[in-house]
Amino acid sequence: MTAEILLQTLASGVLIGLIYALVAIGLTMIFGVMDIVNFAHGEFLMLGMYSAFWLFALYALDPLLTLPLTVLMLFAFGMLLYKLVIKRIVAAPMLSQIFTTFGLMILLRGVAQFLWKPDFRSIENSWVAGSVKLAGIQLGKPQLVAGVGAVVITAVIHAFLTRTRLGAALEATAADKEAAQLMGIDSHRMFSLAWGIGAACAGAAGVLLATFFPIFPEVGANFILIAFVVVNLGGFGSVTGAFWAGILVGVIEVMGGLLLGPQYKTAVVLVLFLAVLMFRPQGLMGKA
Amino acid sequence: MRRTFTKALLASSIAIGLGLGVAGFAHAQAEVKIGVIYPLTGPGAAVGAELRSALELAVDIINNGAPGIAELPFSAGKGLPNLKGAKIKLVFADHQANPQTGATEAERLITQEKVVAIVGAYNSAVTATASQVAERAGIPFLNPESSSASLTARGFKWFFRTTPHDDLFVHNAFEFLKELEAKRGIKPGVVVTLNENGLWGTETTKLQAKLAPEYKLNLVKQVVYPAKTTQLTSEVQTLKAAAPNLVLQSSYTADAILSMKTYKELGFSPDMILANNAGFTDTDFIKTLGKDAEYVITREVWALDLASSNPLIKQVNDLFNSRYKINFTGNSSRTFTGLMVIADAINRAGSTEPEAVRKALAATDLPGSKLIMPWKGVKFDATGQNTLGQGILVQIVDGKYNTVWPFAMAAREVVWPMPKWDQRK
């Protein structure tokens, strides 16, 4: 086991971890603002991937070019979904909320399969194909670009939450819905904003993934479990928490796989998850 | 009191008798219902869609004919002759690659749809549960494409499998390596295995470990991974650290694609990847990977270029292609064959009575010339396993699967080793 292999694996872990982070940020935001667990979150990612794929296949537009467009579409889709469906279950019992988002998950998968067939697709020869050698380690350009993209998007969201009035209003709603409402913040507007941003984040992750991961209607399933672990680990509702937890999970998964044997990689992540639940149930950066 | 009871009994038995008579009459005239249970949605849906097309073609040939393909059974299109030309009707059930759903759907097909037999279910784990339901109900279950060896080791009476199973396929790969060394002097060198960690991958891993010393192969590392993974970095790094010449791999579609992309990304270049079907023979594998799929050898059960030794293959494939714009694959050709075999049995039974169909199945003896498979035929042993099936190996060259083994059926020579990633055009 050379230092080079360790470094290489570490780098791969960080890069996939950044994608996990981006998926989880959207999920944690929806949960933080309105306490609803969105089981259909992986499907937003899937829609983002298909959006990138079709814009590439039909109009030969590179995924990087269409990233803003996809993000906008997913943002609108998230808000629309809130207005049409989620708004009706805001005050419903938790079980109804779970069934609703779970149902959405099945519906979106079904629709994707119906419209685009269950085939596996991929984007060939995007701008970022190939790999680069950096300090003796080999990194795929798509993964590298995806990682950088994830960092940028997280930074933008962080800035939005901490620097703008709208962001502050969103944070206020997350902290205390009633108090925020008394201060004149329209909570339904905030909820729909959270769904928009949440979907947009997953969509962005989808576009970035689309340059190196196969695209198929069920792809969300591969990521959603990890996204939940990340959200929990980072602390429900914490964007920065989700960011660091995403990287942490990515690194632990690949390093655990390399050092203990690949068959244990998921187990290592889940053991860590259990440990956090037992000793720090609010998550690494969550509020108690 | 007693008299009324007898009367009622009499009346009801007449009613039942009439009912049965009517039902029997309707059956003979109209249709024979066969339940088909496949992953039509969910992770296996891509394959499921192909299998569905193959089944529909088979039924259409039986019911409506396929002029010009005289060698194919039922191509006259008169339905099942021994059942007064009864047509076959497929009742589709979707198991979503979920063993539990598979069992429930099999139950529904038997109790509610009253199917004569069940054909399915692609995923070995689902075949295991669904066939258990059929066994209990006493309904013949024909499995055309699940290759888990354990399926025919359960002592079932109603279970029949036309495809060769994994043990045989894994043997084929080792046989190939032995013959390759004898014929061309190519030594496999250091060997590693990479298998998914489901039932199939785990059984394959065990068998490879057992066979390697028997074939004097230097197997140094066996890696397993979950098929629904988001990355394969640690797996590939572990393989790379073992510096192997040959990788024996068993993967489903998404993970097969992901593994190839990760090999390229991390610059992992063994002499050869000898894959174990499944994902590597999915239509999407070459389509998705393009040039990066080149040179991989995979075991297969079928290839279009076999048509040179069996014209039936080309004729039926042309029909399939003109209708669905895709060619047969190892999966869809086996499913097609499975339906033909069950139709043949029901026809020979001349009845839709389960025991009669089971007996006819057990007595099946179809020659290879009537099949679109590279098999010597279909003939079941006491466990329900077809003893005349065999696998082939194909290599991807110029974006196509080319038969390279058995050497007698080969359409071209094996390219070995595969070029390193940075030396590829």
What this model shows, in words?
The complex is a heterodimer of chains A (288) and B (425). By secondary structure, chain A is an all-alpha fold. Helix content of chain A is 74%, strand content 3%. Chain A has one domain (12-219). Chain A is globular. The model of chain A has no long low-confidence stretch (mean pLDDT 91). In chain B, 52% of the residues are buried. Residues 17-29 of chain B have low confidence and may be disordered. Helices cover 43% and strands 16% of the residues of chain B. Chain B has helices at 2-29, 45-64, 99-111, 124-137, 166-184, 199-214, 233-241, 253-265, 283-289, 311-324, 330-349, 354-362, and strands spanning 31-38, 87-94, 117-120, 141-143, 159-161, 190-196, 218-225, 246-250, 272-275, 297-300, 366-367, 377-378, 392-397, 400-405. Chain B is α/β, with parallel strands linked by helices. Chain B has a 7-stranded mixed β-sheet with strand order 7-6-8-9-10-13-14, sandwiched between helices.
Describe what is shown at a glance.
The complex is a heterodimer of chains A (288) and B (425). By secondary structure, chain A is mainly α. Chain A has 11 helices and 2 strands, in the order ααααββααααααα.
Mean pLDDT of chain A: 91
**Structure classification of chain A:** mainly alpha
Give the class-level CATH name of the largest domain in chain B. Answer: Alpha Beta
What about the largest sheet of chain A? 2 strands, antiparallel
- How many domains of chain B, as an integer? 2
Number of separate domains of chain A: 1
- Provide the helix percentage of chain A: over 70%
Question: Order of SSEs of chain B, N→C?
Answer: HEHEHEHEEHEHEHEHEHEHHHEEEE
* CATH level 4 superfamily of the largest domain in chain B: Response regulator
Shape of chain B: globular
Q: Based on the coordinates given, report the CATH architecture of the largest domain in chain B.
A: 3-Layer(aba) Sandwich
Radius of gyration of chain B: 23 Å
